[in-house]
Amino acid sequence: MCPVSLHGLKQMASPGLLFTCSTVFFFFFFLSFFQSPSTAFSSYPNDDNHHKISAVGFQKVNLSLYYDTLCPSCATFIVKNLAGVFDKDLITITNLRLVPWGNSFVNKSNNAIVCQHGSDECVLNTLQACAIDVLRDVDKHYALIYCFEFLVIEGRHNDWQSCFDSLGLPKKPVLDCYVSGNGTKLIQKYADEAAHLNPPHKSVPWVVVNNQPLQEDYQNFVAYVCRAYKGNGAPQVCKSVGPKIN
Questions:
Q1: Dist CA 83 CA 73 (whole Å)
Q2: Which of 4, 93, 97, 207 has its CA 20 to 30 A from that of 62?
Q3: Residue of 225, 210, 59, 213 lying closest to 238 (CA atoms)
Q4: Can you give the pTM of this predicted structure?
Q5: Which domains are delineated in the chain?
Q6: Burial (0-12, 13-18, 19+ Cβ within 10 Å), 215
Q7: In 3D, which of 216, 215, 209, 206 has the Cα closest to residue 67?
């Protein structure tokens, strides 16, 4: 996980001195387990309501992920773990929210956004915020973010534009959002949201289920989502998951 440096936040120093993150070898260990984006997300359903299910008292569980786009542990979680929301049909009862703002902050002296892993991360955070806003269908913007983060794991994050072509997703509206400055406004809203987390986030990835932070147990998010769901017609994974909740 990538911990927040409270001293760095107070001093508003340069990005390179602000934070520490887990070593790079962590995600290379898991690399052989990942699917490429083109095979993991090869097509999209045409029906916008394909995630809706008929259930008495049905209410989706909010699953929010606060993350930094170039944090190795965040990329690993998005590609290796969070994709299970779709693989296991958990998405039918889940309102998945991706928030590309974790250990970033706004420098009060010049109102500039400072990102943990430098300017490239600021660009990717903003692009992903635009993708979430423009590609409203969670299948589509998650597929794009999955592809971006897959490239991060491979050390090729600068090839992010290739994801649009490989997934058949429109590039122009996302880039227009970025160039127009709308992406910066979206990021600022995420910054305000993250600043009001209670309790404050300690590291990234920071996973919250219905306002409950999972903290160190974030990889066990499936169990928390299943427990929080109060409707009928829960997916099969909720019937097989054990009560392994810390």
A1: 14
A2: 4
A3: 225
A4: 0.81
A5: 57-240 (3.40.30.10)
A6: middle
A7: 206
According to the model, what pLDDT value does residue 180 have? 98
CB atoms within 10 A of CB 162: 13
Among residues 14, 11, 128, 6, which one has the least CA distance to residue 71? 128
Bond from prior residue into 243 cis (ω within 30 degrees of 0)? no
- What are 75's two structure tokens? 């990329």
CA angle (7, 246, 227) in 5-degree steps: 115
Six-digit token pair at 164? 């649009």
User: Which of 70, 117, 114, 100 has its CA nearest to residue 206?
Assistant: 100
* pLDDT per residue as tens, the chain (246 positions): 787 643 333 333 333 323 333 333 333 333 444 577 877 765 444 444 445 443 434 799 999 999 999 999 999 999 999 999 998 899 999 999 999 999 999 998 998 999 999 999 999 999 999 999 999 999 999 999 999 999 999 999 999 999 999 999 999 999 999 999 999 999 999 999 999 999 999 999 999 999 999 999 999 999 999 999 999 889 999 988 865 666
Q: 119-152: b or e for each residue (b if 16 or more CB lie within 10 Å)?
A: eebbbbbbbbbbbbbbbeebbbbbbbbbbbbbbb
